[in-house]
Amino acid sequence: MARVTEGSKPGRARWLVERLTERVKAVRALQRDVLKLRQRIDDLETAQREVTAVARHADRAAMQVRLVAVLNQTQQNDIERLAAVLDEARIAEHVRRAVDAARLLTDPYEHIVIERLLPDDAYELLIRAIPPSEFFDDRDRIKQNLTFPMEYGPTLAVSVWGYMDDVIAKRIVRPAVFDKFHQPLQAHFRSVFGAEFLDRANALPQAASGGRLMLRRPGYHLDPHRDPKRSMLTCLMYLAREGDSEEHGTQIFRVHDDEDADYKQTYYPASAGHQCELVKVVPFRPNTMLVFLNSRGAHGATIPADAPATLERYTYQFYVAPLNEALSTLIKSLPPERRAKWKSRALAQPEYARSDGRARE
Fold it and tell me: Residue 146: its pLDDT value, please?
């Protein structure tokens, strides 16, 4: 049998195949090593992010502790006067007069601007009780929120803002503005529930919900929208401090060819093809509250990115809405065509659920 040598054609072909096979194996082994290395790098990066997040959280917590210690000392006089300033009967009488004096405006939809919502000393206390931004959520510096009750904070902030959310908003402002909007609400109830369900709609127990202190900075933008359908009234209090300008308040829009949203979440008319026309901007003035019927039109806000870097806008917002269980019972009683308008957006618009877009609400 003839010996196959590297120089013969069959031998060289076999040699090339063997070499190629070896190289393929080497490349595959290298690819496996690269994949392992990439996974290791990903694991290290994930671990680094987690360590960084833990360190940032620890730094934030340490800063909060230091701030609480300092503020609890410097704000002691205000803390001692809380009972005198936060007198529920006195504040309730003042708020009722302020709400009664506010003129109900109808263009482009029903709203009021309440001036001197609170007694001056109560408002000034509210401003002094706003905690440092370190106590707000830190996901987005341009848009920070603080919900209640506060988990941890300076005694003055916890006490005053807890009182604002639990007593002033829920027990004083809510019933006053609900009475103020009685007539517009009748038309709204007929629109979303039907005339035959008007009595049941009026009997729905109402509550204040979603209370939060909001801090907005340059670069903030919120497209024209309506709040979630279950919210009948939106209440937005402007917390202007000394030296704040009246700029960058709430934008009020007229929606052309407006119609009821076919889902219950936050509704952006422009996304449904409706033109939003800016009608006015409610000024950012101290101790004022904008209240509007969440029925037609839209509202939004913008703080240009080129505004002064130190500019801050503090507001407090809550909704007046029926209790969930009672509202759900009423919705289940509606005829199919009306009940369909209370579906989630994912059910009302399947293409939305399949899209890669992220809901803005």
Answer: 98
What's residue 351's pLDDT?
65
Distance CA 135, CA 306 (A): 26
Instruction: Cis check for the bond before 119: say yes or no (omega within 30 of 0).
Output: no
Sequence-distant (≥ 6) Cβ neighbours of residue 141 within 8 angstroms: 217
Q: pLDDT value at position 323? A: 97
Other C-beta atoms closer than 10 Å to the C-beta of 212 total 15
Q: What are phi and psi of 341, to 5 degrees?
A: -70, -10
- Residue 23 is predicted with a pLDDT of 79
Residue 96 carries which side chain, given as an amino acid letter? R
Per-residue model confidence (pLDDT) at position 286: 98
pLDDT beneath 50, residues of the chain: 1-2, 4, 6, 356-361
Are 229 and 85 in contact, with CB atoms under 8 Å apart? no
The whole-angstrom distance between residue 190's C-alpha and the CA centroid of its chain comes to 28
Architecture of domain 85-354: Sandwich (2.60)
The DSSP bridge partners found for residue 318 are: 235
Three-state secondary structure string covering the chain? CCCCCCCCHHHHHHHHHHHHHHHHHHHHHHHHHHHHHHHHHHHHHHHHHHHHHHHHHHHHHHHHHHHHHHHHHHCHHHHHCHHHHCCHHHHHHHHHHHHHHCCCECCCCCEEEECCCCCHHHHHHHHHCCCCHHHCCCCCCCEEEEECCCCCCCHHHHHHHHHHHHHHHHHHHHHHHHHHCHHHHHHHHHHHCCHHHHHHHHCCCEEEEEEEEEEECCCCEEEEEECCCCCCEEEEEECCCCCCCCCCCEEEEEECCCCCCCCCCCECHHHHCCCEEEEEEECCCCCEEEEEECCCCEEEEECCCCCCCCCCEEEEEEEEEECHHHHHHHHHHCCHHHHHHHCCHHHHCHHHHHCCCCCCC
Please check whether residue 254 is in contact with residue 297, taking contact to mean a CB–CB distance below 8 angstroms: yes
Side-chain half-sphere CA neighbours of 166 within 13 A = 10
